[in-house]
Design goal:
The chain is of the alpha/beta class and 378 residues long. It is 37% helix and 19% strand. The protein is built from 13 helices and 13 strands. α1 crosses α13. It holds the Pfam family Gly_kinase. Belongs to the glycerate kinase type-1 family.
């Protein structure tokens, strides 16, 4: 019996790796002779870099970069030397998790550090880079990244813009001659876990700005600033990507990656499954178990359990999803290849009580499921 365990992280409770290990313990308690494959996954958000490094054996590297507020921090990136490929997670440089609630300011936070990571990859000789766009503290449309890479963003007086999305309202001219010439030969794929456009009611500012510290008034200010950035970008480049699904990812970083770096935007889970060799793993599996903190109707937009279930459906393999909670619309997941889904709680339980027990609950659910599955296979 071959069991494939490929969870995402359970937010605020377990990393994807720890979740997979907990699942494996439960499986082994039920069926000691089962062959267990663990393949921790992510969808482009938190934990994606670790998932890629674990799946590929890439070298883990460190670089001192600017965080979202311009302070120095040690950021991790991955280097897969045999493929000349760099793994870069935006959140390592410009992540929301590095700021306190009081420090979050979507008007001024910058993606400059992401550009510094890309430069390090180019210095290493990267021919390809996978850019993971989840978890940002920023709403600058990737402007900071572009400045780090050599572009100039100038106001009417010819002065460089200060950091942050609000400053883009003053943008008058883009000068791209200074962009690092090595970018022209870099193949860039950007992992997104949302399909939002850059602007409007579903745009970067309106949907994600509040969690980054923006008030309703500031959301409108940022949306207008990004609109000005999109206008001048279109005039400069001769093409307009503001309506592209995923352009609003990471405060507009999806827009900059596509418009200025010719990136291909891909669902993060598909990118990570490809690197992890998921198709080959599924061939060997009799049963697939995945999961994350919450399963609901929004999961269909590209979250890990749905990416896994769609791939498993193509391989005609059964999939069980274990989630911290099942939210509104979760039943739609049955149409995407999910065989069954279960919440972890074993009774009425407050979140603060459930989080410390996540590993224990995952073990128990997997043990019960495998006892039932083993009986059905006799």
């Amino acid at each position: 019996m071959n069991i494939l365990l490929c969870p995402d992280s359970f937010k605020d409770a377990l990393s994807a790796q720890a979740a997979a290990e907990a699942m494996a313990r439960g499986v082994k308690r039920a069926v000691p002779d089962a062959h267990v494959q663990t393949c921790p996954l992510a969808d482009g958000g938190e934990g994606s870099l670790d998932a890629l490094i674990d799946a590929t054996g890439a070298e883990r590297r460190q670089l001192s970069v600017q965080d979202a507020l311009g302070r120095p921090r040690q950021a991790t990136w991955g280097w897969l030397s045999d493929q000349r490929t760099a793994f870069i997670e935006l959140a390592e440089a410009s992540g929301l998790q590095h700021l306190t609630a009081e420090e979050r300011n979507a008007l001024t936070t910058s993606t400059f550090g992401v550009g510094e990571l890309l430069l390090a990859a180019l210095d290493q000789g990267a021919e390809k880079a996978l850019l993971l766009l989840g978890g940002s503290a920023t709403n600058d449309g990737g402007a900071g990244m572009l400045q780090a890479l050599g572009a100039q963003l100038l106001d009417q007086q010819g002065k460089s813009l200060p950091p942050g999305g609000a400053a883009l309202s003053q943008l008058n001219r883009l000068e791209l001659e200074g962009l690092d010439h090595r970018l022209a030969s870099l193949t860039l794929e950007a992992a997104v876990d949302v399909d939002n456009p850059l602007l409007g009611k579903r745009g970067a500012s309106a949907v994600f700005g509040p969690q980054k510290g923006a008030s309703l008034q500031q959301v409108e200010q940022l949306d207008q600033a990004l609109s000005n950035f999109a206008d001048i970008s279109a005039q400069t480049l001769g093409c307009d990507h503001r309506a592209l699904p995923g352009a609003g990812a990471a405060g507009g970083m999806g827009f900059a990656a596509k418009a200025f770096l010719n990136a291909t935007l891909k669902p993060g889970i598909e990118m990570i499954m490809q690197q992890a060799g998921m198709a080959e793993r599924l061939v060997r599996a009799d049963l697939v178990i995945t999961g994350e903190g919450r399963l609901d109707g929004q999961s269909l937009a590209g979250k890990t359990p749905i990416g896994v279930s769609r791939a498993a459906q193509r391989a005609n393999k059964p999939v069980i999803v274990l989630a911290g909670s099942l939210g509104d619309g979760w039943e739609a997941c049955f149409d995407e290849g999910v065989t069954a889904a279960f919440a972890l709680a074993d009774g009425p339980m407050a979140l603060k009580d459930a989080l410390p027990r996540t590993a224990e609950l995952l073990e128990a659910r997997c043990e019960s499921l495998l006892r039932l599955w083993a009986t059905s296979q006799r």
